[in-house]
Amino acid sequence: MLRLVSGRTGMGMNEHERLQLLVLARESIRMRLLDAHELTPTREEFPDDKFWQDQGVFVTLTEHGELRGCIGTIMPVSPLVQAVASNALSAAFSDPRFEPVEETEFADLHIEVSLLSVPAELAFSSLADLQSKLAATRPGVILRRGVYQATFLPQVWEELPNVHGFLEALCHKAGLHTESLSQPGLSVFTYTVEAFSEDCE
Known about the structure:
Pfam families: AMMECR1. By secondary structure, the chain is α+β, with helices and mostly antiparallel strands.
């Protein structure tokens, strides 16, 4: 059985609509495992216009409490339902950090969907100022310097509550030295999410 576990920063989805998106993510993975046709969301299933608005989306998979895959699109480049379906498949089968999900794992997967606000650039005058602003609101964060870029969803603050450790890990993910945080040319963007997950009983 699927039920809503948690949500953050409401962006207009009611509980039923959130559950629809979680079912869509799970069914997309299930259909691929069965070697069936790729699931294509329809207007009949998702009649509300909000499902067809372009939306930044991440899909996170865990298995027995451990990360199993996380893939998403930061910017709103495709309709919400299409982004959920495609990112669910990518998280399950194309995350380069993990082997593709196998059929024997399917029942143990726990799915979380995160709907992103459009990122906004954060102005800061120093590393201390940056740390202070991020620690106060704990948003999703994008670091960008030249061709190097990485993001952490707001949920990562739960694992890395110290702002210094958070930024250090994000630099590492982006392929940047931590010294980059104090050097010119670094851009920081922040965003909020509406995050909701399933519980399989």
